[in-house]
User: Fold this.
Amino acid sequence: MDLVPALEEPLRQPLKSVLGPATAKVMAEHLGLLTVGDLLHHYPRRYEERGQLTHLADLPMDEHVTVVAQVADARLHTFASAKAPRGKGQRLEVTITDGSGRLQLVFFGAGVHKPHKELLPGTRAMFAGKVSVFNRRLQLAHPAYELLRGDPEESVETWAGALIPIYPATAKLESWKIGKAIQTVLPTAQEAVDPLPDTLREGRGLVPLPEALLKIHRPHTKADIEDARSRLKWDEAFVLQVALARRRHTDAQLPAVPRKPAPDGLLAAFDARLPFTLTDGQQRVSREIFDDLATDHPMHRLLQGEVGSGKTMVALRAMLAVVDAGGQAAMLAPTEVLAQQHHRSIVEMMGELAEGGMLGGAEQATKVVLLTGSMGAAARRHALLDLTTGEAGIVIGTHALIEDKVQFHDLGLVVVDEQHRFGVEQRDALRGKGKQPPHLLVMTATPIPRTVAMTVFGDLETSVLDQLPAGRSPIASHVVPAADKPHFLTRAWERVREEVENGHQAYVVCPRIGDEEDDPKKTGKKKAAQPPQDDADKRPPLAVLDVAAHLAKGPLQGLEVEVLHGRMHPDDKDAVMRRFAAGETHVLVATTVIEVGVNVPNATAMVIMDADRFGVSQLHQLRGRVGRGSAPGLCLLVTEMPEASPARQRLGAVAATLDGFELSRIDLEQRREGDVLGQAQSGARTSLRMLAVIEDEEIIAEARQEATAVVADDPELTRLPALRTALDALLDEEREQYLEKG
Assistant:
């Protein structure tokens, strides 16, 4: 973050004597560490004390771990094998202990000689490797290790006194090697320029940046670590919030056309025909949006709500208000299935109000057009003409809306549904189609904890819908352990049959399509990039086409089973969805194309195959497709993962609560630190190394206040050059664009 010339030197140069080109390459490719500054900001994940050993009993399966432990026992065995038929094969088994548990290390072949000499009972060492299970016992096979000798000079020099830093490492570069490299560059920390304004730093009692870097990598006491962490967390929170505050400041200077609905216009006519009353939440959020639309600078609002909380209704009323005021509104959906679904449901909700210029259309009516990439040429030409002339007040579409050919008469509002599915450039291109910047409403059904909203969407005002409309039913969720208890899976298919016999329908969701393009030979590279988690993961993920065929011939024989996936022709997809919505299809076997927005109130059951291959938020989204009518919903999460695995715990958490905000917290905590600015979207390196967006809510909130005050006083940061430098390092060009367009 706070990089200055001395800290910007490439790692290969200054560290040749320590790292060598090969190690520098591993650091760049596997840890994203390119400069001396990057390395200094690669903080220890935790610290070990010489006198206190880690809990071997709590080691996570399939993770690369570093432990400090003592050798309890070491035995060399000989055995016969294909390579050593005369019984000359050698296996060294070393048992290490920490008082809480024991762990077995195994070494084979020529690899046994060095550890056999060095790992004698009573020896202390750091061990790094991947935890696996053999004969129902945890083990590390061929771990790397570093002996911890009692030589006082070495321990002070290399391991900084009694506290041993354990760094985030990779299989190719152990923690202690990273530690040694950091010790080499630590003197340059003195040259780090402090981005925090002096008044802020002194007012909050934070140590200077060079001191914080020294204390985080070479602490003498636990108090040193606390001092350093407090300071470094503030750096990250503050610099990020300054970036967002500058975005908000710039946006507030932009001009926009105020859009106030006419008192007896389209919106009033729509409200009058609603067969139900809006929830208090919907009314409150609508008021917030209407207030924003009436101002002369663009609205930037995030609307987040639980699955099924009625976000589409709120968005539609906002679009109608803009049409009332003479503008046009565009809704951008991530998939064709969802765009078609939105178009169908909006036209149904509006009735004659969606028939502008047509026979039987109401007086205040407008046209609602659909625009997707797969439309026929004539229909597309017609839709484009309606947009250019202004006859269509509302357009719903996929990224086809963004193409150069699409011209609006007067674009006043852009609604982006499921914003995390869109690339930055796509959103920006659509916003650029207004004569003046249009108002922007971003919707997400993935609930976002307050702190994440303040960091990821810090330049958007946030509205939350947390009430479900009346008449919605609860969803019961259960984990189905298919490997441990196969009869549970049999019972799951019986439950689907029971739902169908009661006049309802069901979804079966699979992670893969299963047509020829999914051939592992063709996608070998992608498959190899994801290491198998355990035995259950060694088979390919279950596929829609295979599962549908199996169900139709077996457990669900006699029921109408259809498939839906992203590679089908759009007309076929639409036809399948129409048949399912009409109740003609009993069971829809689909990929995650049904994840958002698909609304079939009669569908009451969902079976998610290989549920461990989906993220927590994604499972919550999928589950939201059932229980949308008056009958209770059922969601069955099928997995072959063993009971103790993290994947099973994750599924247990999803089954235990319907609270999306709680699940999003769990999701974040499990993913640990990540890139809050969206690594996938910005293509840049992780921005948060120390700050935990869930735990550090207070720091983020305070940093936001401080940043807002600093930017209000000095928007260009002319009086704070060090902060400007830190900002430039955080916001490389791509990330700056991400913030601008997000």
Notes: Residues 351 and 361 are 9 Å apart (CA to CA). The longest strand covers residues 64-79. The two ends are 21 Å apart (CA to CA). The mean pLDDT is 80.
